[in-house]
Design a protein that fits this description.
The protein has 10 helices and 9 strands. The protein is an alpha/beta fold. A 7-stranded mixed β-sheet has the order 2-1-3-4-5-6-7, sandwiched between helices. It has a two-stranded antiparallel sheet with strand order 8-9. The protein is globular.
């Protein structure tokens, strides 16, 4: 179960003065757009035989003041709840969702992932509402391996990039070693997301951002990582090497990009 939080959980109750948002980001300052990793990780999990679902809590909170986020989370059923803490503004919202999940689903595992999670994995795993933190920027395969290990009740110590708590509550940080050199192996497919949406009959809850149903923009993704070091950027070459085991940018080949565009056209043409 993938959950996406608003930047500030109780934004509907408190007056907040937001900073500027880049014109290239279609979402609002609530940051209701979930990262592309939801789609790629979901695709890999579905291909491995797991059932997945995306619930964009932020979009539903933004769409209606009457939407009860806690009631919605309570109604969900999953063994693992994965919450993205990729962009720093989501710190409050992501942790509040994690707290609510643990309140209503104490037996479920709560996983955080994304760039900010990778940076602060030691602080996050110390929180009582967090069981797992997946570090890195190409975590599709490690996540499948983690889910297979959890399904078997097996040992998590062999899962690369994973920070986790054992049954006694002791924290472990596995080596940060997994990073793809090419994005050609990553499954970029809107199909599983569409099937999951239809299976759960929850179109509004799966929207990438508020208003996507009126203006359905899609994207192809050419690269992960960066080759330069801008002083103000947390995703610089240095930061990627230190936080995500990314020594150099990973590109998607022109042939695979053409396949991606053809796939998007077949679904949304």
């Amino acid at each position: 179960m993938f959950l996406h939080a608003p930047s500030v959980y109780d934004f509907r109750k408190k007056p907040i003065f937001y900073g500027p948002v880049s014109d290239v980001i279609p979402s609002s300052p609530v940051f209701e757009m979930y990262p592309v990793g939801f789609m790629t990780i979901s695709s890999h999990l579905e291909a491995a035989g797991f059932r997945t679902r995306i619930a964009n809590i932020a979009v539903q909170m933004l769409a209606s003041e009457k939407f009860d986020a806690e009631r919605k989370i309570k109604s969900l059923d999953a063994d693992v709840f994965a919450i993205d803490l990729h962009w720093m503004p989501h710190a409050h919202g992501a942790l509040e969702l994690a707290r609510i999940v643990k309140k209503h689903h104490p037996e479920a595992k709560v996983e955080l992932g994304g760039f900010t999670s990778s940076y602060f994995h030691e602080e996050l795993i110390a929180r009582p509402e967090v069981d797992l933190v997946m570090r890195g920027d190409t975590t599709e395969v490690p996540t499948v391996r983690m889910m297979e290990a959890l399904q078997r009740g097996g040992d998590l110590s062999e899962i690369p990039n994973l920070t986790w708590n054992d049954d006694s509550g002791k924290a472990h940080a596995n080596p940060l070693t997994y990073s793809l050199d090419s994005l050609d192996e990553v499954i970029f497919d809107y199909g599983p997301m569409i099937k999951c949406t239809m299976r759960n009959m929850d179109v509004k809850g799966a929207l990438p951002w508020y208003g996507w149903d009126r203006v359905p923009l899609t994207s192809v993704f050419t690269v992960r990582g960066c080759s330069v070091n801008c002083a103000e950027c947390g995703g610089s070459h240095y930061a990627n090497a230190r936080v995500a085991c990314r020594k150099a940018p990973a590109f998607r080949s022109p042939e695979r990009l053409a396949d991606d565009m053809e796939m998007i056209q077949s679904y949304f043409g």
